[in-house]
Design brief:
- The chain has six helices and five strands; from the N terminus they run E-H-E-H-E-H-E-H-E-H-H.
- The protein has 159 residues and is of the alpha/beta class.
- It has one domain (5-131): Response regulator (Rossmann fold).
- Strands 2-1-3-4-5 form a five-stranded parallel beta sheet, sandwiched between helices.
- Helix 2 (37-47) packs parallel to helix 3.
- The longest helix has 25 residues, at 109-133.
- The radius of gyration is 17 Å and the shape is globular.
- It starts with a strand and ends in a 5-residue tail after the last helix.
- The model has no long low-confidence stretch (mean pLDDT 86).
């Protein structure tokens, strides 16, 4: 399996470089490091990464949540938020974009790798469901419903 391509969106260059170095050490390919929401959208269109690590509060007019929403709508690229903020309002706004994870800074390399692997796996499952059934489950409830239906279809009662 080829290494996943990841776009890093972080307005503090030293933090972005640290994250990119961690990703490279783990074995991922960093497609780019950008510092604003508008750059994130442009680079996502240009490089088509498998996943985006997105800071929420960015420089410029477009914050990470708005950028993630536009990217998800246009390109359906999954997002993991990396943020120092866990307040209720920010979390509620972020949830509307259906992120695959929300990691609070500071985080370690293992936490980052686990979140990335789970996000990539969930995205692969969603893409498989679209390819096979032409559906995309919405949120964890929809995903659970599809899993239950698939289990029911594949397991026949004994007897």
């Amino acid at each position: 399996m080829s290494a996943a391509k990841i776009l890093v969106v972080e307005d503090e260059l030293i933090v972005a470089t640290t994250i990119a170095n961690k990703l490279s050490r783990i074995g991922y390919i960093v497609t780019a490091k950008v510092t604003s929401g508008s750059q994130a959208i442009a680079k996502a269109i240009e490089t088509k990464p498998d996943l985006i690590l997105m800071d929420i509060f960015l420089k410029g007019e477009i914050d990470g949540i708005t950028a993630a929403a536009q990217i998800r709508q246009q390109l359906n690229i999954p997002v993991i938020y990396l943020t120092a903020y866990a307040d209720h309002n920010t979390l509620e706004r972020a949830k509307l974009t259906k992120p695959l994870a929300y990691i609070i800074k500071p985080f370690n390399e293992i936490e980052l790798q686990v979140a990335i692997e789970l996000a990539l796996y969930q995205n692969k499952l969603e893409r498989s469901l679209i390819a096979v059934f032409g559906i995309l489950p919405m949120g964890s409830e929809g995903f659970l419903t599809v899993v239950i239906v698939l289990i029911t279809m594949t397991h026949k009662p004994a007897g």
